[in-house]
TrEMBL record:
The keyword ATP-binding applies. This is Probable ATP-binding protein YheS. It comes from the Bacteria. Keywords: ATP-binding, Nucleotide-binding, Repeat. One of its GO terms (molecular function) is DNA binding. Residues 2-246, 313-527 form the ABC transporter domain. The keyword Acyltransferase does not apply. Residues 523-562 are annotated as: Disordered. Belongs to the ABC transporter superfamily. ABCF family. YheS subfamily. SUPFAM superfamilies: P-loop containing nucleoside triphosphate hydrolases.
């Protein structure tokens, strides 16, 4: 077993862990969580022997093979599959020893070594390595490309495959999903579930932690606490602990009230509309999660957009790609304020291409794209992090964007994103990837966009910041298009799912829980026509009449949806007005003086008005849910 006994650990002058006593038993899968900078990666470094304890000790059973992902992948001409095979150190040792025995003509030793190779399934090693690469998103044939032909993100995938290739007893994974898309995350999730060894996993993806781990090790204020259960169970247990503290309890109630405000008007009629049911379930889960984050340092929200034109953006028969290669074709879509769309699709299917078209960063090769005059796009993509001015401060970035604001207002705003005090004044260059991502999000939100395009916004963000972003997006009044491997974020923020596949962008038939099954049934390694890469002969030879039919259907859908959307907006405004009046009446009726004999007439009038308002609100909610059902069917 892995044991920490009275362990204390420093990093420079900072005490990260103090007096920790933890036991992890063989085969347990443990998620290590805590805010950024609290010492999670330092604990990994200690277990790997790169750091030493300041007090106490950490012991790993003798003979255990420990695997972890290397931070840097060598710039090598070695083929990708050979690099992955190097992860099986025992295989490579026996192969090297066999080569020496053959050179020495030692037949007896050769026979012994061949038997050892048989015992470790060496003859199936290349097949296992290829499956790892395929699962992590590499296309057939890519395994023969040299390592140095891949970009940084793909080299990280190679490093992960190399680590998984090791037949380890203890596996240490630090944010393994950061450079993966949703398909690869789902595959890795399945692989880790079947992993027979002991797993220590640092991750900020709550769905991933829920699926993989059976224990959570929480590092907070220098203390390590081991909780039984997955991440959701940990949140509930921690919330119960925090609720015992009066100050935390008060703030917890404010968080819960904030969550309830989103679901209150849907609660009574949640059986009536699939969309309302989905949102209700997600928001009720948020209500349970909120108490575990009462001490989060992040607090921000979207200010109302200055203009909300309808539609914000309209695409008709759009095609786009790079050079002569078409990635998406025949795409029709109309985006209106309040639309919340999550994009699904395999890596390379065209999700980022589609978002770049929406953002205006990629010009369509054909079709028509209409933008509202008052359109204001907030676009988050990983390349924007690299466009920050490294010598400037977070405050300097914000002041350049909003020169008329006071320094105090800008510093207060930055404080909600974790840039408090001197952290708002230091240069951006030394900041971590997560801190830079937070700054880019702060700059985008400050612009008050009416169309928000988020391409993997949670990479490098910790759980607290992800929770704050999820909460803030609930109040965003514009349109949202989201690509993310964080399924919790997709569940809570997206009302509709679009599938980008085989050059098309179409509604996904199902919910997020159905997506893994779709992936399994449309595995390109089986030669499925549904997942044939864009540009293959079947697409190049496709009849133009199919695209015309798609455009006609898209136009009919838009024609059907337009009056429904208008009705939905009218009903939403009516519900808001009635809910406001009901709250005002309840406050008035709480006045004790109203129940005096001389005020009986006024009391009866108010009670009658309250009855009528409640009846009107119930009828309006019923109509709203019916409209949503009709919208759902039209989609």
């Amino acid at each position: 077993m892995l044991q920490l006994q009275s362990l204390s650990l420093r990093r420079g002058p900072h005490l990260l862990i103090e007096g920790a006593d933890v036991t992890v038993y063989p085969g347990q899968k443990v998620g290590l969580v805590g805010y950024n900078g609290c010492g999670k990666s330092s604990l990994f470094a200690l277990l790997l022997g790169d750091l030493h304890a300041d007090a106490g000790q950490a012991t790993i059973p003798a003979g255990w093979e420990v695997a972890h992902v290397a931070q840097h992948t060598p710039d090598s001409e070695v083929a990708a599959i050979d690099f992955v095979l190097d992860g099986d150190a025992e295989l490579r040792r026996i192969q090297a020893e066999l080569a020496r025995a053959e050179a020495a003509g030692d037949g007896l030793h050769q026979g012994e070594l061949l038997g050892r190779l048989e015992a470790i399934d060496a003859y199936g090693a290349e097949s296992r390595a290829a499956r790892l690469l395929h699962g992590l998103g590499f296309a057939p044939g890519d395994e023969r490309r040299p390592v140095n032909s891949y970009s940084g993100g793909w080299r990280m995938r190679l490093a992960l495959a190399c680590t998984l290739m090791c037949r380890s007893d203890l596996l240490l994974l630090d944010e393994p999903t950061n450079h993966l898309d949703l398909d690869a995350v789902i595959w890795l999730e399945g692989w880790l579930k079947a992993y027979p060894g002991t797993l220590l996993l640092i991750s900020h993806d709550r769905d991933f932690l829920d699926a993989v781990t059976g224990h959570i090790l929480h590092l907070d204020h220098r203390q390590l606490t081991l909780y039984a259960g997955n991440y959701s169970a940990f949140e509930r247990q921690r919330a119960e602990r925090l609720a015992q503290q009066q100050a935390a309890s008060e703030r917890q109630q404010r968080e819960i009230a904030h969550m309830r405000s989103f679901v209150e008007r849907f609660r009574a009629k949640a059986t009536k509309a699939r969309q309302a049911q989905s949102r209700l379930k997600a928001l009720e889960r948020m209500e349970l999660i909120a108490p575990a984050h009462v001490d989060s340092p992040f607090r921000f929200e979207f200010a109302p957009a200055e203009n909300l034109p309808r539609p914000l953006l309209r695409l008709d028969a759009i095609a786009a790609g790079y050079g002569d290669r078409s990635v998406i074709e025949g795409v029709g879509l109309s985006l209106n304020p309040g639309d919340r769309i999550g994009l699904l699709g395999r890596n390379g299917a065209g999700k980022s291409t589609f978002i770049k078209v929406l953002a205006g960063e990629l010009t369509p090769s054909s079709g028509r794209l209409e933008r509202a005059q008052a359109l204001k796009i907030g676009y988050f993509a990983q390349h924007q992090i690299h466009q920050l001015h490294l010598d400037d401060s977070p405050l300097g970035h914000l002041r350049r964007q909003d020169p008329s604001a006071t320094e105090q207002a800008l510093r207060s705003y930055l404080g909600g994103f974790g840039f408090e005090g001197d952290r708002a004044l230091g240069p951006v260059g030394p900041l971590s990837g997560g801190e830079k991502a937070r700054l880019v999000l702060a700059l985008i939100i400050r612009q008050r966009p009416n169309l928000l395009l988020l391409d993997e916004p949670t990479n490098h963000l910790d759980l607290e910041m992800r929770h704050a972003l999820t909460e803030a997006l609930q109040g965003f009044d514009g349109a949202l298009v989201l690509v993310s491997h964080d399924r919790h974020l997709l569940r809570v923020t997206a009302d509709a799912l679009l599938l980008v596949d085989a050059g098309a962008v179409r509604p996904f038939d199902g919910d997020l829980d159905d997506y893994p099954a779709w992936l399994a049934n449309n595995d390109p390694s089986r030669g499925s026509a549904a997942t044939r890469p864009t540009g293959s002969p079947s697409i190049a030879a496709s009849d133009g009449s199919d695209r015309k039919q798609q455009r006609r259907q898209a136009a009919q859908s838009r024609q059907t949806l337009q009056p429904l959307r208008q009705r939905e907006r009218t009903l939403e405004k009516r519900m808001e007005a009635l809910a406001t009046r009901r709250a005002a009446l309840e406050q008035t009726l709480a006045d004790p003086d109203l129940y005096a004999p001389e005020a009986k007439g006024k009391l009866l009038a108010l009670l009658e008005e309250q009855r009528q308002v409640c009846a009107d609100l119930e009828a309006t909610e019923e109509a709203w849910l019916e409209v949503n059902e009709a919208i759902d069917q039209a989609r």
